[in-house]
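Private note to self, pasted from the team thread so I don't lose it. Backbone tokens:
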């Protein structure tokens, strides 16, 4: 239930409040993710990861151990780079989330 009074809008339904807060947090998270992430770089890294996986698969199939190991090392470097880049938005969203969830308690 929503009431409008001279002091402002009063929302008495806690489910509505939680829904509004969760929707706001989801929107905030999405906007920050779009602003912070370089999607072209992420796409490039994912393509390079797929290439390395194919190289590893072919090398192991053909018995080229050194080639497979070298490709595995490159795969690990790319995976770490991908994880670092993907964690950037969390740095910006963790503080507002902690504050809002702390306030909800």
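Design output:
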């Amino acid at each position: 239930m929503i009431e409008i009074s001279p002091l402002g809008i009063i929302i008495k339904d806690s489910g509505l409040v939680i829904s509004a807060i969760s929707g706001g947090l989801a929107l905030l998270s999405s906007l920050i993710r779009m602003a912070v992430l370089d999607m072209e770089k992420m796409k490039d890294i994912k393509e390079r990861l797929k290439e390395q996986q194919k190289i590893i698969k072919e090398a192991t199939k053909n018995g080229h151990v050194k080639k497979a190991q070298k490709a595995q090392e490159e795969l690990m470097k790319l995976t770490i780079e991908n994880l670092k880049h993907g964690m950037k938005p969390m740095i910006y969203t963790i503080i507002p989330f902690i504050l809002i969830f702390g306030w909800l308690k």
